[in-house]
Amino acid sequence: MPVISANTQARREGYFRLEWKLADDGTHLMAKGTPFIIPVCVDDTKDSDALVPDSFMIVQWTHLPGGEASNSFCARMQTLLDGDVAPAAKRPPPQTAPLRPTPRSRHRRPWLAGLGTVLVIAVGLALWRPWRGPVANPPPAAAATSLPDRELEARQAHCPQATVCPFTAPIRRAWISPGRSRGRLARTRDHCNRVVRARSPRLVIRVLFTLRMTPRLTVARLLLSFVAFGPAARAASNRVVEVDLCVYGGTSGGVIAAVQAARLGKTALIVEPGRHLGGMTAGGLSWTDVGNSDRVGAIGGMARDVYERIGAYYGQKPGTAFDTPTKPEQVRLGVDYEKPPSLAFEPHVAEAVFGELVREAKVSVEFGERLANVRKSDRRVREVVTASGLVVRAKMFLDATYEGDLMAAAGISYTLGREANAQYGETANGIQGPATNPRAGKFEVAIDPYARPGDPETGVLPYLLRDEPLGAIGAADRRIQSYNFRVCLTDQPGNRLPLGPPAGYDANNYELLARWIGARLAAGEQLTLRSFLKYDPLQHGKFDFNNRWPISTDFIGGADDYPEANAARRAEIARAHEAYLRGFFHFLANDPRVPKAVRDEMRRFGLCRDEFSDNAGWPHQLYVREARRMVSAFVMTEHHARGTRAAPNSVGLGAYGVDLHAVRRIVVDGRPVNEGSNGVTVPRPYPIGYGAIVPKPAEAENVFVTFALSASHVAFGSIRMEPVFMTLSQSAATAAVIAITDNVPVQQVDYAKLRDRLRAAGVVLEWDAAKPVQPAGQGERKRKNR
């Protein structure tokens, strides 16, 4: 869509004119009048004066005064984008047509065209091998990424549908200088990736002539054309991969499942929508949730191996990963107990460990592949199809996503939000009363919530409050407990990046926070940074920042739409969470209403140069504490977590106290309250039943769900810890191998056989009742808010 104006008229030479020449050449390959370029005149330039090739003088012309798109123009563009070839709008013939020179023959130097074709094919063939197959190994850990790549790939995590192909990355590195604007880099990346994903001739032509022309991008266009139409591209566009186990989601548990299957002699493939392995374990949740120090014994099998490997990176000897640190420099005291490096690590180290595991097991990983369709017959999933056209056929499928996307696409029953207490005879489910504990979100000082203090008619303060009734205590709803980012910050100047405010930052959005601060100061409270959040010490001067207190890092009320949203909407929600948290940090560091001691303490910290380096230091993974939850024939409930009922056929242990975060902040009796925060004591580690990770037999016979498993909102609040997800995924992969070997549905796997194999692999299935255990609920109320 080239723009015609007085400015473009002044460009009588250069690459702008060369683009028109290339566009003109393109028309010789099309039927007369076929629309593929829409010149738009945005000012009063006369039709007869426009310096446009002859082939565009009669057709494909439009006026948009001031650049304002009309409804008819938008409809016309949509028709073209949809692939419908509609008659092009004709440019009115000029009253006095100027004389124009006859175009020179395109075949003046045919040998040049032949030479160019040979060069393009040669370079294309050189690129064929890295382009043609699945990615066998994950990308290197963020810390090992070169600086130019980090700058070019910044913000990639907020575009989960974007795919970085092995062809476009070298183009960016070699042909785009780091000094160019990020906007142009992003546009170039998106254009290239759209070509590679779609491979549509019409789209290719549109994209190639939309990019600004430079000598280097001229070559890039030729190569992109070859990639889009060449034999390697045609093969890649219809790739079909057949494996024994397809794992959707390269989370911590996803990696464990695929590696376990490979170790047991089966082929496995990880299909990951993003660009990283490890999920939250490599995405900022570094202060590991294990409950009390005496409960680390509940971690076994491959989950323990992950933490052993992390510990080895920091010099811990084999078998000592969970020992209390003896060297002061290894770790600084955190909130709950002094954790060893294996449980208080840097995110990039965890990601490197997961990459090491898949390389050792020779597990293939398809990055940037988002699920588009699930094909199912006779109660079995036959294949999954991604947005790029990749088809994966497998005997068994495992959903290792936090959202349960494969589960939902396969038609497996699930629920959202909170069940009524009455549904499973629970006590902590459904709508809750106002928080009763400050660490869980209770405001202990009176705060006026209204826009004009004392005047309810002016409405509640914006952004952090909702004006809605509490509802019936214990009743069901579909609200989702709050999310945040587990941000890794450092106070080491040499590794510190600025932690700037979000675009459009408005301090008025944090007025409730300001009033809370004022009320606490008036009550005589001495405030520090830990009066607003918790930050736990990791290695090398880094900290894991997390939620605590009534207003903290959780974006309360911001997650309700997330579980069932599409990729674009999820990215929008993630950006809203980032904007809130950046604004929260900026307010604490700079607003004059914040005590100077707090401001100074907050200013100590910044993002880490060597963490999440492809996203400018910001975590690539939103902390999705809860989304969909499967509803199977067996459901884990509060009774199992409390230990009053035992789940049959254990495939792992839950150990953490029930930790439920607020779902909303509302006004009750003229005061703001957080609703939904709650905690339940878990007296000892408890078994999680095999039935919770397999669907109902009538819905799917070859699918496992190990993250969005079958559990009530309350039980899930205890199960949802990363070590547990890894353990359940190892158990599921082992069961999948048995189901394949015995040719039975997953619901009919011989549990005795499964149990013996899991025990042999070191998975902990029962808790030693003779071992003294401190109730997790006690430590949980001290720690709160994981």
Structural summary, described in words:
This protein has 786 residues and is α/β, with parallel strands linked by helices. It is built from 23 helices and 25 strands. The strands form eight sheets. Strands 4, 5, 6, 7, 8, 9 and 25 form a seven-stranded mixed beta sheet that branches. α9 (215-229) crosses α10. The longest helix has 24 residues, at 567-590.
List keywords for this structure.
single chain; 786 residues; alpha/beta; 7-stranded mixed β-sheet; 5-stranded antiparallel β-sheet; globular; disordered C terminus
Task: Let me know the number of strands.
Answer: 25
Shape: globular
Distance, first to last CA:
50 Å
What value does the average pLDDT take? 81
Helix percentage: 25-40%
Largest sheet: 7 strands, mixed
Radius of gyration: 29 Å
- Quaternary state reads single chain
Strand content: 5-15%
Structural class: alpha/beta
Low-pLDDT ranges: 85-108, 128-191, 194-216, 769-785
Number of helical runs?
23
